[in-house]
Specification:
49% of the residues lie in helices and 10% in strands. It is an alpha+beta fold.
Amino acid sequence: MTSLAINLSRHRRQICSVFVLMKTERIRDPVHDLITFDNSGLVDEFVWKLLKTPDLQRLRRIKQLGVSEFVFPSASHSRFAHSVGVFHNARRLVKLIQREIGLKRVEGIFNVERAKVALFAALLHDIGHGPFSHAFEEARKALAAERGEPSSTKAKIRKHETFTADMIEDSASEIRYILELAGVQAGEVADLIRAETPTDMYHAVVSSSFDADRLDYLVRDRYMTGTGAGAIDLEWLMDNVRVAEVDFSPPGPDSADHIYEHSFCLGYKARDAAEDFLLARYRLYTNVYFHKTTRGIEQLVSAFFRFVAREIAASQSVTGLPDDHQLVRFFLPGGETTANYRSLDDAVVWGALHAIAASGTGPAKEIATRILNRGKPICLDVQQSFPEDAERQRRLKHRLDATFKNRLGESVFRDATKLSIYGEIGADDGRAQKRLMIQMSDDNLKEITDFKDATIADSGRQRSFERYYFLNDSEYKMAENTIDSIKGRRA
């Protein structure tokens, strides 16, 4: 028996020896205040054990907002803290489901087993995140496209949701064993995380317009960045949560395709707070997640991963790192295993940045040095260059793409994303906005965008963020000359 198997067996015996919490455990949280764990909860004793597993502890070493601390110095909170907050919110939402059933607003009886699955899914939903999550996944997409896997700029890779499900279902993992002790199948928890459209009100705890994840990160990220934008009245929203049958049908007139499932909605008194909730999400993206400096440094981090991976592909090693370094193992052919992925975190990457900046060579060394010293690239914002002038924006992008065709991804980086208030939002929260329904006094539901005096309209309009980032002053000057040239012509 291997030492790992012996240690796991010993740990399992320790788990089996104590099935109850000996005392109430507490976590002090800046957003939710005291988060307590005791034997009166549905799964508290098992969650307390899960928090001690290596997969959850790894999240302490992965920052929730990646490189946002380069812009907002206090935004250094971890995905571990976020996961605890999501579980806390999920527990509150499950109690609201119990309340709705108890008040006969929802038919049936409370499904304890389904509720347990939702609570575990809420806690574990982020364990599959890699270091610098967004930048890491973008780098891996670009590498897959370069290698023709498939030959597309939107190459498919194992995303963090897939790694999360795989880690939960791993037959040798402590997580799976603890779930079994709780009487829950790991596959049920993994399936809940994989699926996007809610299948019932318990699933809505994890995936809906008003799920436990969004209710934590919107409040936590606003607080930790110190931004004044995006206030949310969380307690009023929670007090007005209701459960009702919501139509999750795809758009279209064919009523035969209508799919009704129980999910969360909000009472009419919370209509204004619900609009504020959507606006808060939008403003956090515009002011924090899509901040031009944050996106620029993400481009550098993504480039660092690509340059390191290319060097490994060429020579099976990277100058400055030992051959058994975690990044080397991961980027070797066939190295994208769950075990190798588990070994990666922000601390590992920061160590690699220091090592390559000191002893590396080529573009990886240059990028590593820039990141360590906050040597942000120079930003050219397409929308800012020609506000409200779509034609000149189009011409600028066309000319820049042609001018720097051979430098894109090397010393010039193109970043483009879109954002809408009520719809798909992209980045770390790539899920489409689920329908947010308001329950009227007669119990009928109305989508929040359908009110005649709605602040938020379901117009489908999207705001574009298109930027070019330059490592060299000379290339940026060429881009500026292009802008001047376009301005000198008649539109």
